[in-house]
Amino acid sequence: MHLTSVIITALAGFNLQQVYAATVDPKSWYDQHPGLARINKVDQSSNQIVDEFGRVRFFHGTNVVMKESPWYRPSGFSPGNSFGLQDVQNLRDLGVNSIRLGHHASAEPVRGQYNMTFMDIMKQQTKMAEDHGIYVLVDVHQDLLAGQFCGHGVPPWFVKKGWVSSAFMYPFPTKLIPFPVDSNGMPTPPSICGTVNWGLTYTTVAVGNAFGRLYTNYDGLGDAFASYWKLLATQYSNTNNIIGYNLLNEPWVGDSYYHPELLTPGVADHEMMEGLWNSAATQIRSVDNNTLIWFEGSTYDILSGFNNVPLGDGSKTVQSFHYYNPPQVGSVSTTIQNRLKDNQRLKTASVMTEFTMWMGDANQMSGMVDAVTSADTYMMSWMGWAYENLYNSSRMPYPELQAHYSRAYPTAVAGTPTSFKFDESTATFNLVYNINASNGAPTEIMLSPLTYPNGYNVTMNPAQSLVTYTVDNRTLALFPADSTQDGTSITVTITKN
């Protein structure tokens, strides 16, 4: 097959291929490499996540987390409340290629006894995502750690009565009089939890005390946390679409009342968290040597305070970070630049796994634009918070949110990416990269059918340097032409029909 046009027009639903006297057979390559590529390494020279073919990988995604019993979202479609077939189809159409899937630690209702029904449901949801081309980040999620603190994360048996004196119980000192509790230590009535700012109550005596006990392995609680991760890794070690294990969402600094120095940005990372992350990583590696381990520091860190990544191997870890203002005081651009500095020091990669992605006032909407464009500028992958916020009262995605999720972006770059940029106003996308022509794997670009309903045009410079192939209605593959040399700088431009 020989075509001479430099401009390729791809129509949604059609499979078109451009070949310039090339011997490469794109269809054959995909036939020989079906499904999602395994992702289990960080290139420490570029501080980027790479797949089994050595391609640099980028992710745009969302968070799917259920913060109350039964701790998973049901399958029947209910916009913002479900996670079933219709949900993953909607995410696929948006161009999402990843989700951060919350695995609640309350799956261990009795210490040492696990709810395998919950585990099976989470595995089914993970497989459903894989069938639709979506990767999963397994996340142990918490906010305020426990139900006794109007939060969630650990099971009820974790927190014991008497850890703090009655006068200092939750939410002292946010409120000077502690909440009344039921026989299980839960605030009662439950509606009383709505009378405090949950974010500020991380500074309560009770919450800090409980985190401190977790980090210092009081009563083997740190060991129990690590054992839970061993179970999760056993469940997922052979699952193709797992991009990593996110050890714990937004860990608090620890017992800052006894140790106020922990409130200094970066201190708790090495003083408190590093030991627990190493313990959990050791248990994971006892059953899974390949999957990337994702770790977080304090939510208000400026620069990471970790002495090293979990178990010291930056090629097998990723730093997960969030951007909200507050607690961050600078711009999202500054936060991303700080994480890139961390990458250099820790010899690892990072991904922004939460930031504001819900409807709000003009300032909030402007901040959302700043977040996604800054991520492009610094070639940073991201996952917005959260899927539950996507839909309006008409059961359709908010157009403003859809526009961000359905941005064009490279999902896999066979070479060294130099830059990429997407203009939401025109749907024009540009990618510049130095090609690795020798490994035979394609660069892939995500082009959502919601953004390009009538197809798109592809131009490249140098002309005829690539073989184009439409894998499906959202994925454009770019193979090197026979004449293209390793290291050639290639610019690809996508425009909307």
Please provide a written account of the structure.
It is a single chain. With 497 residues, this protein is of the alpha/beta class. It has two domains: 17-40 and 419-496, Immunoglobulin-like (Sandwich); 58-141 and 217-406, Glycosidases (TIM Barrel, Alpha-Beta Barrel). Helices cover 24% and strands 22% of the residues. The chain is built from nine helices and 21 strands. It has helices spanning 26-32, 85-94, 116-131, 205-215, 221-236, 267-285, 332-346, 362-377, 399-405, and strands at residues 8-10, 17-18, 39-43, 48-51, 56-57, 60-64, 98-102, 135-139, 242-246, 293-295, 317-323, 349-355, 382-384, 409-413, 415-423, 428-435, 443-446, 456-461, 466-472, 475-480, 489-496. The protein has an eight-stranded parallel sheet. α5 (221-236) packs across α6 (267-285). The longest helix has 19 residues, at 267-285. The chain is globular and about 75 Å long. The two termini are 25 Å apart.
